[in-house]
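#struct-help
A.M.: can someone run this one for me? Single chain, 392 residues.
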Amino acid sequence: MQDAPFLIAGAGIGGLTAALMLGRAGFPCLLIEQRTQIEEIGAGLQLSPNASRILIGLGLEQTLTRFASTPERLQVLDGTNAASLSSMTLGHSMADRFGAPYWSIHRADLQTTLLDAVRGLGNVRLIFGRKVSAIKKNDDASVVVTCSSATQSEDVVCRALIGADGLWSHVAELLGDKSSPEFLGYQAWRGLVPINNWPMHLPKTESRLWLGPKAHIVHYPIRRGNAINVVAVTSDTDNRPGWAHLGERDKIMKRFRDWTPEAKDVISAVPDWSVWSLFDRRERTRWSENRATLLGDAAHPVLPFLAQGAALAIEDAATLVREITKTPDQLADAFRRYETERRPRATKIQNAARANGQTYHLRWPLTVARNMVIRRTDLSKRYDWIYSFILN
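D.P.: on it. Structure tokens below:
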């Protein structure tokens, strides 16, 4: 079994990071992805120091700094009157405090950087247009899975199976968890604004979070400041499963018509919107079984109210590979140690993100108490427990 590959299902951020680290550790890998190519789904994301530290440790800093932006600060504002509620310095002070930067980056730029690094390894094979359709064997000796495309299927003997195939993980279903994600009544609207089209009176080098009744807006620079990523999340009963539906401009403009003029200018600046519904999943009973395990959203989906989805997947990959290298001949034990270590932190971040979603969308008069609490909260210390993560 020493020559059999680790099979990783899903070439998202978590899967690519795991493949890169396993390949560099000398383990052959087969990385399969159901999509036929890397797409620009999701636009921007934020990489706090707990994630950027790991990526820098992988030698990717020089490449990523060609794409990433480093916002100077985070501003939290009331979307109904533009009152400042709180702020947190990012920029150089974040790197000084935590030893790693706070980056904002286009998802496709991060995935392409990881993909190029993976392709540079001779022991990692990457195949698009494939998925794990069946698990025929999973015991102490090996795993045998069926990999399928639109036209053919083949059985693959692998050393272990890692499911990094997201919220709707088929690997998790094959391992016995057939529960479905739950629609939470949120719609996420996303769009990019070229910097030349960004309103002159709005900041270009900081991240802003606008809070309002049954909605919030986040925007931050990406692509070395050449574009602004805008995300508007609304409480909405319209359930649209799937990714990147075309967003109706008149609908979102109407949704924010009573907000402060600056917030409405943010919405107006976006030329094209994509929209999808947000789903969540309660804690899985287990992530691992014999020589198979899950990572990232497949194990513990995180709502986008704490900007930690990508970061947790990167942390997962680093922790998993560390445990594999400790006992490469006892992978079931390695997977149990990985799950035991990662589950409490993932659960805590999941719960914090869910709480933020509820808090962000409060309506008057509850917003009075919320705003008072935010004004009294030191954001620079509130998330120390997240940003200070270091893999031992």
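A.M.: thanks! Residues 247 and 273 are 5 Å apart (CA to CA).
D.P.: also worth noting: The chain has a mean pLDDT of 94.
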